[in-house]
């Protein structure tokens, strides 16, 4: 079990080794988390843009004029024989 840095029996060299180890752990964690944060930081803007696109696409058909009403069927004149 590793001794705590505040342990009075811990030598200066051992304390420095523990600090170096902890520093490497922190650096590795930072290197793992930073790209994830960068990716997640862009996600809200991308989702906002996609939502705006969907809204525009939904509104476009609603803004188009409707079909012309069908004219009443006019019977064909009788065929001459």
Provide keyphrases for this structure.
64% helix; single chain; 0% strand; 81 residues; mainly alpha
Architecture blueprint of SSEs:
Blueprint: H1 12-63
Account of the protein in words:
By secondary structure, the chain is mainly alpha-helical. It has a domain of 51 residues. The protein is 64% helix and 0% strand. It is rod-shaped, with a radius of gyration of 37 Å. The N and C termini lie far apart (112 Å).
The residue fraction in helices comes out at: 55-70%
Low-confidence regions:
none
How large is the share of residues in beta strands? under 5%
Largest sheet: none
Give me the secondary-structure category.
mainly alpha
Q: Spell out the helices and strands N to C.
A: H
CA(first)-CA(last) distance: 112 Å
Number of E-state strands: 0
Mean of residue pLDDT values? 84
Can you summarize this structure?
This protein is an all-alpha fold and 81 residues long. Helix content is 64%, strand content 0%.
């Amino acid at each position: 079990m590793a001794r705590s840095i505040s342990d009075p029996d811990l030598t200066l060299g051992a304390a420095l080794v523990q600090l170096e180890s902890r520093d490497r752990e922190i650096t590795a964690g930072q290197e793992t988390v930073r790209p994830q944060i960068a990716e997640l930081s862009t996600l809200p803007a991308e989702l906002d843009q996609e939502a705006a696109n969907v809204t525009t696409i939904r509104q476009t058909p609603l803004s188009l004029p409707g079909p012309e009403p069908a004219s009443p069927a006019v019977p064909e004149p009788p065929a001459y024989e």
